[in-house]
Amino acid sequence: MLSSGSSPLTVERESMWRLLMVAGAVWLAIGWTMLRLEPSSVAAVAGPVVLFGALCEVARALAGTRTWWLNAGLAAVFTVTAGLLMTLPFWSFVAAAALVGWFLMVRGVVDIAVGVMARGSDRVWSLLVLVGVLQTGLGFFAASPFSRTARLVMVVLGALGVLRAVAELVTALRLREMAGPRRDVLRLPPESSAGLEGYAAGVSDVEDAPRWRARHRARPGGSTVAAGVAGGRSDGGFPDRAVRTTADLDAFLAEAGVTGSRAAAVPEGVELAPEAR
After folding, report:
1. What is the domain extent for residue 124?
2. Are residues 145 and 253 in the same domain?
3. pLDDT tens for residues 86-112?
4. Which tens digit of pLDDT belongs to each residue from 261-270?
5. Residues 6+ apart with CB under 8 A from 59
6. Transmembrane region positions (predicted)?
């Protein structure tokens, strides 16, 4: 699972999972720290948190994914939000909570959209959607009139750190899982490799086998097979024996007085067996 539109099959840098692993650990530390701090200046604390979220989006944009433009756009939006929080320290915690809620709602909606789009290619897409729903709900709560105290805003920041830690760590583990098979994508297990080699050898033998052609072809003035039988010689093949047997049977039927098309179907120039005369 890669949030913000990334897919494990499109990531080009194998070291990306390490960076996301570090980011997840930092987010987890942020979530724990927010719950332990005294809410003296909510805006001064929320500014660096949102700025770190913008830096994570920059790292995703530089990872070579197909949706780098989406990560770059989120990085720009979050940078402006963090700048407002840090440059206007006189804002009340209500305004700071509204900006944090904006960050959470945007991030959650993007995660939901990307998770739904990746449902056919990523088996953990439902986890991404769940994280997005929780982030959206948390952002709605932070921006609503219910968040009236600084302590609630700090709890929201702590929950933000935990949710982003889950998203980043799961993404890092998925990238690490996909990094190995991408290098050995053409390698098969020994049993499958042996079976594939045997199948290829059989196909090659069939294609290289000589093409059997008919030994007797019709010629003007009579059949080659009939001429060979009339001369008292036979190649010993099944067609020769079949033609001679048929001719003998037709001769017996004609001698017995049985009329029909088969009795008159003795090839011209065919010498019958002595007992058939």
Report:
1. 16-182
2. no
3. 887 666 677 888 899 999 999 999 999
4. 544 445 555 4
5. 16, 19, 20, 23
6. 16-35, 41-62, 69-88, 94-117, 124-146, 152-173
